[in-house]
Amino acid sequence: LNPFFVEAKRQNIALELLESERKYVINLSLILKIKATLQGPDVKRSTKERSFFPNSLRYLVQQHVDLLHALQERVLSWPRQGILGDIFLKLTNDENNFLDYYVAYLRDLPECISLIHVVILKEVEEEIKSDLYILFFHIVQRIPEYLIHLQNVLKFTEQEHPDYYLLLVCVQRLRVFISHYSLLFQCNEDLLIQKR
């Protein structure tokens, strides 16, 4: 393959990743907007204590806003040998709780969904509820999407490229994470598809 073609292809995939992160952050902020309207004074006080939304949501929003900025900075000034792996390496390492918060999200979600189903059912139009389930679904899908994006970048990264090893490690980490929690992913996907 022509090295210029390979580099151009890598850059395009990096741009696609950036664009998908931008959309994802918009979706996350939509959930927070819905959350704010649902926790208004109308919702019965008794249910206030039990949260309709996974607690990890706030943290995830913050992490993804930071990730979006890091990706923008990197991808929009893409040098000839652009590197993405280090960003995801930092995100997925054990000192960072990024993946733990996704696990917490996946664990809290079924209870939140049943609460939303029972309590908010009467107070909210069907449309908002279905939007909410679609947005929740995007979050469940996000880590597997990163795996696909990074595998695509890796496909167009020569072994001598400074990003190659970094990407390889990230892809491995995400694979292990997804297979380790595959039941949790599956259970939440099924639940959301069924509710929708």
Task: Explain what the structure shows.
The protein has eight helices and no strands. By secondary structure, the chain is mainly α. It has a single domain, classed as Dbl Homology Domain, Chain A (Up-down Bundle). The protein is elongated, with a radius of gyration of 19 Å. The termini are far apart. The mean pLDDT is about 90.
CATH homologous superfamily (4th level) name = Dbl homology (DH) domain
CA(first)-CA(last) distance: 45 Å
Q: Strand content of the residues, in percent?
A: under 5%
Counted up, domains total 1
Structural class: mainly alpha
The overall pLDDT, averaged over residues, is: 89
Named at the architecture level, the CATH assignment is Up-down Bundle
Query: Uncertain runs with pLDDT below 50, 5 residues or more?
Result: none
| Percentage of residues in helical conformation | over 70%
Q: How can the largest sheet be summarized?
A: none
Spatial extent as radius of gyration: 19 Å
Might you state the CATH topology name?
A: Dbl Homology Domain, Chain A
Quantity of strands, as a count = 0
Order of helices and strands: HHHHHHHH
Oligomer type:
single chain
